[in-house]
Amino acid sequence: MFPNVTINAMNLCFPQQRPLSSSLIITICLAFSAFLGCQSESKYPNRPITLVCPWAAGGGTDRVSRQMAAHLEQELAVPVNVINATGGKGVTGHNRGMTAAPDGYTVTMITLELNTMHWSGLTNLTYNDCIPLYTVNEDYAALYVRTDAKWNTLQALEKEIRANPGQLKASGTASGGAWHLGIVGWLISSDMNAEDITWISSTGAGPSLQELISGGLDMVCCSLPEARTLLDSGQIRALGLMAPKRAFGFDDVKTFQEQGTAWTLGAWRGVAVPKETPAEVVDILSQAVGRIVEGKTTLTSESQSTTFPQFMEAQKFDPTFRTGDDLKQFLSSTDAKFQALLTSEAMQSVNTDRFSPMIFPNILLGLMGCVLVGITISSLSQRHTSDQLVPTTKQKIPRRGLMNFGIIVGATLTYLLFVETVGFVLLSMAITLVMLCWLGTRLSISLTITIFFVPLVYQIFANVLRVPLPHGWWGW
Amino acid sequence: MTEAITTAISDVLQGQVLLVILLSAIYGIFVGSIPGLTATMAVALMVPLTFFLGDVEAVAAIVTTVTCSIFAGDIPATLVRIPGTPASAAYATDAYALTGKNQHEKALTVCLVFSVIGGLFGTLVLACAAPQLAKIATQFTSYEYFWLYLLGLTCAAIVSDDSRLKGAFALLIGLLLSTVGLGTDYSAPRLTFGLDELITGVNFIPAMIGLFGISEVLRNTLYLPAENALPNNQNEGNSASTPESSSSTTSLSALIRQILPYSWQRRFHLLRSSAIGSLVGMLPGAGADIAAWVSYAVSKRFSKNPEEFGKGSLEGIGDATGANNAALGSAWIPALVFGIPGDSVTAIAIGVLLTKNITPGPNIFDPTDKPEQAALVFSIYVTFILANLILIPLGLLAIRAGSVLVRIPRRILLPLIVIFCIVGSYAMNGSYLDVSVMLVMGLLGFVLESFKIPLGPVVLGIILGGQVEHKFIQCITKSTEAGEFLNSPISIILAIAIAILWCAPTLTSIARRKSNSSG
Is residue B93 a part of any domain in this protein? Predict the structure, then answer.
């Protein structure tokens, strides 16, 4: 369909166009090969791999993902690009990763939310919808109070909660998030009620810790690395860690079990591929990840070389890893734990919001109605003087202009519809050429601009910025 | 404190950051000097790239681009009387009149020198006022924040256009778009129309690229043939005069020698206009363009030769151009202290900071709490100073190349911008939905503009909507009765200010109508 459009557009614009010289065509081919290089088809992997990270850039999961990507890139000898498919409390990224083509070119950094979000009704995805290769990190929740708080131990705090249920305020993440579940699970497993601590929804561990220091909260639940700076400066004290054993790098923080409460809650991160990925691809990837987490690969940068476990230790992430049957059992037991917690009656009452999610949109819609009425009234009352509501058509829109408009919108739509099949470079060149010609640039100039511009954009985005632009017929 | 400053300076004075500053400066001048492409569009198109840069580089890129493009907007304003950015509109007539007198290089050099001085003044105000304001801001609870957000949104809606209702309408569209998907406080998605990808909400980057990028392209293409005929005539007239005049004028260094004493002579006026610019820039929602208009008006009011204004007054040009650059720096004050942007560029900047896990707020100035954030704030000051300094040589080159820059045909640029818009909106999340959002927002922006509804408030609404809702829900969850919304003096003052802003123009117009009918 494109050649037709192009030719029509060209004929319309320049009926008396010179034919293309063969030297120009040769130049085009040379420019292509110079910009893009050649790629030969061979066994997996032979083109860039995308690593989907369901959380924002700069966060913990993102840092682990990027380190993993760098190691994988070295192991597999193809570029591994990280995409932050954020939002929806993790649903977006997990969804993207698991519904991708099962060819091994999309790998996902899965997180604890895979165990929780289907129980809270956000999605139908479970850990059974993917092939988990490895978990690469486990960080457990810990409970913090201010250093000047009167509770020195977990028992003292428990006593206070039992004496004044509902009086103490805690935070750490959004309502229903992992750290919230940590508190609720602890309360329930110690025979208290889920509402005995009031949970204040916040946007993350950072703001919550800030609020704790300024006195707005009584305790915060989050992982140890997140609270490290405040722990080091002595402003907060960790009362206990919800883990089976003490954490690496924080030897003085007692576990809940040591203090007589058998409750654990850990966030984990792992590597997975979509469910129907071929076994030989899974093997190649699994072996690569295995070598990485065991510290058999080193990443050399500037002056130092680091292994993956060394990086994790430096970042104070717990580098525990699991695979095979151990991993399967871990995932199913964690899933069962959250099923019990999230479907319990206690949690249901916590989850019911006092105000419906539509309250704010409804207020806005109401206001919008008022404003529209206002605009109509004011335009009616001003009709005899100036008519502002009607588009100012002092300058009559030329038909040509409307067609320009259509071409631009059409070009974008064409891109959306066909880029996945045709590929970025080919399709972008086609639509750039059509737009340039249509708007009245001479064909030879349009061609020159297209040939230099599109590969340049491809180079910048695909190779410098590592955006996985769609691959099409010719592999680019 | 000093530690943070030295970290900031060493952060900025690195090869890569300096390279980013240089490239953004060139890019800013390029986009700013092309009529029809605004400074906001320049920044909007750059955001997908900043996502891949480090924190300091990203901030440096935004600051430099906007500083340079606001000056570069003066170039087409002077040469062909089409302001390159809306901020140059206030004095386009004056500057063009000077071109008619063959003094365009002098006019542009005045623009450059005064812009740089105004810009440095704005940076000084930013560096001094922001930390002081932050000390007050730490006492704010969610009630005060709620009112403050409302005040910021009110200013944006009122200030941006002649009709307050249209501004409000635009704002409500933006706020409504921000509520799509999961809110901060809810675990159930809303308004997603069954699309799983919309659970995340409407991503602000593609929305903004659509609103400022594609809609601008669409508007441009609509009148492309007609406009081609018009500026061509102008250009021909110009190009006939420009080469000969540039050969006849003195060298650039001579020009500078000529302008510097003139600047010294007008130092108090420059101080006044910079102060006006900084004050206007500090108001949430008011930006560089309004600063230029206000300063121009003040300059005319107090000038010894007001009759020259509108016919090529160098005084008016100098004062207004100083003010619009001063506004750029101080627009960051509310953005950094409260997270409420001073203009549409800082609105975008807040979005970028948020994607980098940096939340603007009073704590951002505290070097003991998060040293890297405090250093980042200081690096904003350093970048502003560097951007203004680098503007001097690049600006002089741009003045020389101006007549060429202005004449790059739009029919070539527009298709390339379309490709950038597509790739840019795709790059952030690798999602086709984002490209669709970009297109839909572009069409929405086009329709809104043709009804003369401003686009700035829409973007502001999208960016601030989540925060406003979060604070609102926090407030109504905490409070047992409505009166708690007004339980502190600051809340009451803010609420009264909002009421006055919305009602005052109506009241005055009613009063005027009454006095008219009676008299």
Answer: yes
d(Cα B318, Cα B273) in Å, to the nearest integer?
9
Whether A218 and A295 share a structural domain: no
The residues facing A27 across adjacent strands are none
A21 plus A94 within the same structural domain: no
Q: Report whether pLDDT(A375) > 80.
A: yes
Which CATH number belongs to the domain containing residue A328 in this structure? 3.40.190.150
Q: Classify the C-alpha dihedral B273-B278-B279-B285 as positive or negative.
A: positive
CB proximity B233 to A under 8 Å? no
| Domain-located, residue A273 | yes
| Residue of A92, A207, A428 with shortest CB distance to B200 | A92
A433 and A285 inside one domain: no
Count of the separate structural domains present in chain B: 1
Q: Find the CB nearest B221 among A123, A401, A441.
A: A401
Query: Does one domain contain both A133 and A275?
Result: yes
Radius of gyration (C-alpha) of chain B in whole angstroms? 23
ipTM of the complex: 0.74
Residue A447 pLDDT? 92
Query: Do residue A451 and residue A380 come from a single domain?
Result: no
A319 with A209, same domain? no
CA distance A230 to chain B (A): 9
Q: Show residues of chain A in contact with B226, CB under 8 Å.
A: 395, 398, 401
Residue-range definition of the domain harbouring residue B335:
2-508
Cβ B91 vs Cβ B317: under 8 Å: yes
Last residue of a domain, one of A265, A289, A324: A265
The amino acid at residue B266 is R
Query: B451 touching A, CB under 8 A?
Result: yes
DSSP state of A238: E
Contacts of A325 (CB under 8 A, 6+ apart): none
**Is residue A280 domain-resident?**
yes
Instruction: Write out the residue range of the structural domain in which residue A307 sits.
Output: 49-137+267-343
B472 touches chain A (CB under 8 A): yes
The answer to whether B183 contacts chain A (CB < 8 Å) is yes
Range with the largest mean pLDDT of A187-201, A383-397, B319-333: B319-333
Is the pTM higher than 0.90?
A: no
Domain shared by A149 and A245, yes or no: yes
Give A454-458 contacts, CB < 8 A, sequence gap 24+. A454/A425, A454/A428, A454/A429, A454/B419, A455/A31, A455/A32, A455/A35, A455/A36, A455/A425, A456/A35, A457/A428, A457/B419, A457/B420, A457/B423, A458/A35, A458/A36, A458/A424, A458/A425, A458/A428
Tell me: do A147 and A261 sit in the same domain.
yes
Instruction: Say what the pLDDT of residue B18 is.
Output: 92
- Looking at the domain assignment, is residue A472 inside a domain? no
B321 Cβ contact list (under 8 Å, min separation 6): B71, B74, B88, B91, B110, B111, B114, B115, B118, B292
Q: What is the mean pLDDT of residues B465-469?
A: 83
Backbone angles phi, psi at A250, to 5 degrees: -130, 60
pLDDT tens-digit series, residues B335-362:
888 877 777 778 788 877 776 667 787 7
**A2 pLDDT above the threshold of 70:** no
Q: How many domains does chain A have?
A: 4
Asked whether B267 and B121 are in contact (CB, 8 A), the reply is no
| CATH number (domain holding residue A210) | 3.40.190.10
CB of A48 within 8 Å of a chain B CB? The answer is no
- Locate B366 and state its tokens: 């505290």
